Automatic annotation (TrEMBL):
Alphabetized GO MF terms: lyase activity; transaminase activity
Sequence ranges assigned to domain Aromatic amino acid beta-eliminating lyase/threonine aldolase in this UniProt record: 11-296
Lineage: Bacteria, Bacillati, Actinomycetota, Actinomycetes, Streptosporangiales
Cofactor dependency: pyridoxal 5'-phosphate
Keyword Transferase: yes
Protein name listed in UniProt: Aminotransferase class V-fold PLP-dependent enzyme
Keyword Metal-binding: no
Organism: Nonomuraea turkmeniaca
UniProt cross-references to InterPro entries, sorted A to Z: ArAA_b-elim_lyase/Thr_aldolase, PyrdxlP-dep_Trfase, PyrdxlP-dep_Trfase_major, PyrdxlP-dep_Trfase_small
Family: Belongs to the threonine aldolase family.
Annotated GO biological process: amino acid metabolic process
Keywords, sorted A to Z: Aminotransferase, Pyridoxal phosphate, Transferase
Source domain of life: Bacteria
Gene3D superfamilies: Aspartate Aminotransferase, domain 1, Type I PLP-dependent aspartate aminotransferase-like (Major domain)
Amino acid sequence: MLIDSTYPKSFASDNHAGVHPDVLEAITAANHGDAPAYGGDRWTSVFEDKIKEVFGPGAEGFAVLNGAGANMVGLALMLGRYDAIICPDSAHIATHEAGAAERLLGVKLMTVPTEQGKLRPADIEARLGGIGNPHESQPTVVSISQATELGTCYSPEEIADLASAAHAAGLRLHVDGARLANAAAHFGCDLKAITTDAGVDVFSFGGTKNGALAAEAVVVLDPSLTDAVPFLRRQSLQLASKMRFISAQLSALLTDDLWRRNAAHANQMAVRLAEGIADVPGVSLAQPVQSNAVFATLPSAITETLRRRYLFHPWDEATGVVRWMTAFDTTPEHVDDFLDDIRKAAASL
């Protein structure tokens, strides 16, 4: 799809945003002479040390190229040939990765209808009845998205409860952390509080949606799993030859809390947008605003008018729900201009 460059601002995805200047500077700094390939460079060593600094000395970080790849590598570590993943029905691995888990990992997704996209301990317990039955796939991993695909966030306590329920049943907990930074910024906590301290086994740390060019990390907290990562990363086509340029981006985000500053700003712009539509007739919030996503219900006429000037995605055409995303480079002026056009569209009905 060709995008008209006259669009004033995209609210379709944080993937539409550019690259943070500090990240670009880090890439440029790494572009100096030759360096060993496939992670044998000093930039990757710095990244690995920063992962331990942020997530704890037992954390092992592995740089990869994209979010779906990070999920496949992280999940593959914990799955066997007849296993299954318990996840919300809205999870990214169930809705927006083209069946990658089923195709590449050869496992079943046991999806669970959820409220606001969030799995509960009882949802795990309800899927355990087939354990030991050779006629059924065996749940081995619980996977959640943080933030969820509906923009809501799991608190540290909620994740700890899920980890306890999973571990009590002999399962491991995986977190798709494409927007992990936004969740931590929402709760005002550090990244460790919603991962290591909460009992997560494996998670991804997203960079691309938070100011990187193309960089994610698989972070392993269970030491029994780390030896397999290099092989699975290679098999999953996620081992970058010029790894230094991927690692440099992640290190930049993990330096001086750049990850937090970017995510907090994106979240604040989402709140600004949500508060701005509160008095617009016919427009209402469809989900709580806890990250950088705003889900709103609009009359179709308003949606059609706005989409002539702005990029954003209809989420549920039957109910009129749309999704608006903000990013680290969304400005108050971008939001206010959008709000002005929303009000004009509503007034014209």
